[in-house]
Amino acid sequence: MWTVSMNKLGIIVSVVSIYLCFNDFMSRGFIGNSSSSIEQKSNTSEPVAPWGMVKEDQLDELTDLFNAYKEQHENEAGPKTIQLSEEVSGSYTKVISDNYQLELKAVISDKLSYALINQVELETGKSRLVKVKAKEIITGLKMEIISQTKVKLTNDKRAITLMMYQPNKKESV
């Protein structure tokens, strides 16, 4: 007797569960109900533009915001390059001097220390790797080795440190 009543209880619970699931599907609009509550709610609100569609005034505003970000990002990003002029001194990864862009590639410490500097001619774009010994002159600048990643380029008025990379932290020498 106990098992018969348990079977009846199981059947009743199953039927009620199926009914609730079916009712839930119907109320959500999954089964062929053309006037579902979702559609009715969307008709009462403000019309929504399809994905990727932006109103004209929003487009102008977004374009202005993006351009401001782009200009700021371009000013901050990239390796430091400087064209040599009278008031310039400091540390850089690239320097422009006498129509050449100079970039430090390696510092070799052997019996005679020297640096390998990539020299790019700005007019033609041709580049060549130049071996410069300590105290030698390249494009009017005297080169002096500071460390394994830095050289100092000087002339009468300037002192520029040319680095292989821009470190995140201060480098202890």
What is the topological layout?
Layout: H1 2-28, H2 37-44, H3 56-76, E1 81-83, E2 90-92, E3 94-97, E4 100-108, E5 114-121, E6 127-133, E7 137-138, E8 141-147, E9 150-154, E10 159-163
Parallel strand pairs: 1-3, 2-10
Antiparallel strand pairs: 3-4, 4-5, 5-6, 7-8, 8-9, 9-10
Mean pLDDT reading: 76
Oligomer: single chain
Uncertain spans, ≥5 residues at pLDDT below 50? none
Based on helices, strands and strand pairing, what is the structural class? alpha+beta
Q: What share of residues are in beta strands?
A: 25-35%
Structure write-up:
- With 173 residues, the chain is an alpha+beta fold.
- The protein has a domain at 81-163.
- The protein has helices at 2-28, 37-44, 56-76; strands spanning 81-83, 90-92, 94-97, 100-108, 114-121, 127-133, 137-138, 141-147, 150-154, 159-163.
- Strands 1-3-4-5-6 form a five-stranded mixed β-sheet, with no helix packed on it. It has a five-stranded mixed β-sheet with strand order 2-10-9-8-7, with no helix packed on it.
- The mean pLDDT is 76.
How would you concisely characterize the structure shown here?
With 173 residues, this protein is of the alpha+beta class. Helix content is 32%, strand content 31%.
